Amino acid sequence: MRTGPGGLPLAGSSAPHSDTELLERVRKLQPLIRSHALRAEQERRVTGEVVAALTEAGVHRMNVPRRYGGYQTSLRGQVDVLSEVSAACGSAGFMALIQAGCAFIAALFPDEAQDEIFASPDVRVSGTLIPNAKARRVDGGYVVDGTSPFATGCQDADWHLLTAVADSGAGRPPDLLWTAIPMTDLDVLDDWDASGLAGSGSNSVVARDVHVPAHRVLPLGPLLGGTFPSRRNSADPFYAMPVLLMFCAWTAAGALGPARAALAEFGERIHQRGITYTFYERQYEAPVTHLQIAEAAMKVSCAELLTADFVALIESRAGAGMPYTPEERARIRARCGYVARLCKEAADLIGSASGASSLRREVPVQRAVRDLNALNLHSFVNPAANLELYGRVLSGLEAGTPFL
Fold first, then answer.
1. What is the dotted CATH code of the domain comprising 5-117?
2. Strand stretches in 184-342, DSSP E
3. Domain with CATH 2.40.110.10 in the chain
């Protein structure tokens, strides 16, 4: 049997028998991922060794249809896996969750496109939902032109789902399209230089008059309405889970991981250092430390409970034929943002109690603080925006966005 980093069996030769086995594979990779976190920040992308290890563990197969060799891992299982990756390195976790999400979206494309995209079950798919590019209708498809920023993991992707705006004609609002494009047809701008999630490789990609055949186009409007063109996956309850609600779960995992890691590291640091300019030779003896670690732990626990609750709701509705109410959708998105906020608050509290020595870049606490700040700034996750959205619905108004 072929093995990869850490002696793990390659995914292609040994598929996990359960979500638990996949989770254990990822946990065995944590020392490797953690040891590369600083280098990922310095290089502004996840290292090749970590990309290969995640691929070989099968992380990228979680949302690939089983008929192509994928796992169709339960949503709860995905949250567990992605949070463990994120605990070792926020940037690697963010890349993994974006590529997991994009693989799910790829499985909603017409079946002909899936045959191309999933030619390998270990395919890595990146994507963006920022409609900066333009799509011009031509015979047999579209020509796409433009720049798409924040394309997380694009340098290590095989395919990219690029969002483009197309003129719908007759004075109607423009159509939003997800276009599946091989990365070999796109250029990557080396423009990712950020203070948080710094190693995620979220560069811009550029399409220069790229022809995209019609079968590799997924209209966003019908998708948000619950319909998609894949015939083979249309009856599968797994792919009936609303993709935007899935993104709430995936990004919650990206928040939980760094917050848990920061809390665990703080629990170790307080036994190894004192509090300068006080009589406390060990930080763990100080009452203020007891308050700080307890409050941070409670915030993380609350975030975990909120996540478990809305993930259970999403899974319970899969294939049940019960549509979501606007209030339920808005509540899930609000909880996603609130989870991110709680995790950020926990990390901020830990960071402020960790002393000036924690400012060193090799100390993971400061990285967790920066990564969680970056995640909270994401427009889909932003706690304040999501609370307003939920509050509008609770007040009897329209949500004000189709992205629910």
1. 1.10.540.10
2. 187-189, 203-213, 217-219
3. 125-222
The answer to whether 136 and 166 have CB atoms below 8 angstroms apart is yes
Look-up of token digits 């979220």 = 202
Indicate the Cα dihedral angle 291, 292, 295, 299, nearest 10°.
-170
Give per-10-residue mean pLDDT for the chain (404 aa). 40 70 97 97 97 97 97 98 98 98 98 98 94 94 96 96 89 90 98 97 97 97 91 94 96 98 95 91 94 98 98 91 92 98 98 88 92 97 97 96 89
Domain 241-394: homologous superfamily in CATH: Butyryl-CoA Dehydrogenase, subunit A, domain 3 (1.20.140.10)
In this prediction, residue 315 carries a pLDDT of: 95
Tell me the residue type at 86: S
The helix-helix angle for 326-352 and 243-269 (nearest 10°) equals 20
- Alpha-carbon distance of 226 to 323, in angstroms, equals 9
Supply the pLDDT for residue 259.
98
- List Cβ neighbours of 63 (8 Å cut-off, separation of 6 or more): 70, 72, 73, 78, 100, 101, 103, 104, 107
Structure tokens at 178: 């997800």
- Please check whether residue 101 is in contact with residue 243, taking contact to mean a CB–CB distance below 8 angstroms: yes
The dotted CATH code for 125-222 is 2.40.110.10
